[in-house]
Amino acid sequence: MANNPLLPHRHCVLLPVKDFDEAKERLVPLMDAAERRDLAIHLANGVVQAATPIPVAVVCDNEQVSTWADTLGAQVIWAPGKGLNVAVEHGIHVLAEQGFSWITVSHADLPFPNQLTSLPNFEGVTLVPDRHHDGTNVIKLPAGVHFKFSYGKGSFERHLAEAKAQGLEVSVVEHPQLSIDIDSPEDVSFVRAQTRQWGPEGPH
After folding, report:
1. Which of 24, 164, 165, 168 gives 36 a disulfide partner, CB atoms 3.0 to 4.6 angstroms apart?
2. What confidence tier does 196 reach under pLDDT thresholds 50, 70, 90?
3. Domain assignments of the chain as residue spans, ordered by start
4. What is the C-alpha to C-alpha distance for residues 14 and 21, in angstroms, rounded to an integer?
5. What is the C-alpha to C-alpha distance for residues 52 and 129, in angstroms, rounded to an integer?
6. Could you tell me which residue, 186 or 8, shows the higher pLDDT?
7. Assigned architecture for domain 11-144+153-197
8. What is the pTM of this model?
């Protein structure tokens, strides 16, 4: 049992979260600034709740986000000026030093995150691509691996190549819920259609 990566003291969920006031800029045609901010907070709240009872750490460089994370009982890992990829790597390094063995790195904009901590146990790197097979919504990996993150357009293929370059076994999980995120107006329409079909919690 001591090696089970799902035990709370061995496994942590890491969320990189940007300034809520700057979030979801691609949704400007649909929402004003306050609505985009509220959406970003709502989605991030859902991801944190879905991680329970696994500990959650939020890596950020914004005081508002830090206060939000602290209010939810998440650990705050401060990473000012590092950029997304370096911030995630820094967060994993901090968590590894704290004794965590497994880290699940998740985007904070997943509308159906309730399966976040139910990914199968796997000794290598687990990748959950987005529904377009372009981005990487979730990555689960051993904390001690020096994995080079490369978020942004085309990140799934880069993360797949990085895992192989490191000689790590890779499991690609095509997940009907975790593959969905909200970045664009088209994503909003897709999520609304899925919500009508599945209900607000996703498929059961």
Report:
1. 24
2. confident
3. 11-144+153-197
4. 21
5. 22
6. 186
7. Alpha-Beta Complex (3.90)
8. 0.90
